[in-house]
Amino acid sequence: MDARRRHRYFAMMSTCVVLFVMAWSVVRLWSVQAAIGMCLVAAVIPPIAAIVGNRRGPNERWFDEPQEKDPDAGTGDPESDAWWDELEGKGRKDRRR
């Protein structure tokens, strides 16, 4: 997850928690209707935060996009490539000789 998206997600979820806590600890003493309104606003924030947190950046490859390079060339991450090679049985010496 991109750091900017992570910070936005954290800020939105923090705002949600602050709205809930302030609504029922402080605002309800003056106006129950305002506290209910604050809770309704806070209830809308988590789905929006999830959308913001999972949005793809302009330079990120999504998990289901086909790779433009040779599929046998690997992912570019040596540790991941080694794991996939081991899983697929590539690079093993044939023991039946």
Commentary on this structure:
This protein is mainly alpha-helical. Helices cover 59% and strands 0% of the residues. It has three helices and no strands. α1 runs antiparallel to α2. The longest helix is centred in the N-terminal third of the chain and has 23 residues. The radius of gyration is 24 Å and the shape is rod-shaped.
Largest sheet: none
Q: Give, in order, the helices and strands.
A: HHH
How many DSSP H or I helices?
3
| Estimated radius of gyration | 24 Å
SSE map:
Elements lengths: L2 H23 L6 H23 L23 H11 L9
Brief write-up:
59% of the residues lie in helices and 0% in strands. It has helices at residues 3-25, 32-54, 78-88.
Short descriptors:
mainly alpha, 97 residues, 3 helices, single chain, rod-shaped
